[in-house]
Amino acid sequence: GEDVEQSLFLSVREGDSSVINCTYTDSSSTYLYWYKQEPGAGLQLLTYIFSNMDMKQDQRLTVLLNKKDKHLSLRIADTQTGDSAIYFCAESRTGANNLFFGTGTRLTVIP
Amino acid sequence: EAQVTQNPRYLITVTGKKLTVTCSQNMNHEYMSWYRQDPGLGLRQIYYSMNVEVTDKGDVPEGYKVSRKEKRNFPLILESPSPNQTSLYFCASSLGGLSGYTFGSGTRLTVV
After folding, report:
1. Residues of A with CB under 8 A from a CB of B
2. In this structure, which of B22, B54, B76, B82 has its CB flanked by the most CB atoms within 10 Å?
């Protein structure tokens, strides 16, 4: 089970909160990441969480991890138009040297 | 500036004509990796390298070659490109562990 799944699209109004969800299947995952891809650009690491943590907050970003359900979410508070991008979750596993990425969620922020 | 540099950014080529996409990093990272990004499929790893002269296959290695003769460079070689290799390619490097990967800006390849 190496599948990492995300919904493909999310639209929110400017100023609202966005919640992007991700499910993974491999319980050996050690680190989980959120990356942001702006149009025409590479992926930028936003934040990460270690698998023994439940929550991590970093300014407007909150990451929640439910290890029992293998569910990861990224909450963006006070979403701005500059947050419009594709967001990827990714997992790495003990002893592995690669990241497994989800399909990406395209976030559109409506002014 | 710490970065991963890929060249070219855009490339259109014909089936069967060998090509190389270069990748260079200036952060002295040990790990380097190539991914391809396709709509609805996310990023899939092609090859990765843990250090000089150490490379291994990722999830979709067929039709690709890599080499790691120096720490900073990790070129991706398509010996005989085919249209199903039309994609957006990313090179990435990492110190390993928590640091995640630093990505290049991408190379959009079209094979006709």
Report:
1. 4, 6, 8, 31, 33, 35, 40-45, 48, 50, 88, 90, 97-99, 101-104
2. B76
E strands, chain B, are 4-7, 10-13, 19-25, 31-38, 42-51, 54-57, 65-66, 76-78, 87-94, 102-103, 107-111
Q: Is the pLDDT of residue B77 over 70?
A: yes
- Residues of B within 8 A of A101 (CB-CB) are 35, 42-44
Report pLDDT digits (tens) over A51-110.
888 999 999 999 999 988 999 999 999 999 999 999 999 988 665 567 888 999 999 999
The residue of B1, B32, B34, B37 whose CB has the most chain A CBs within 10 angstroms, and thus the best one to mutate to test that interface, is B37
3-class DSSP assignment, residue B27: coil
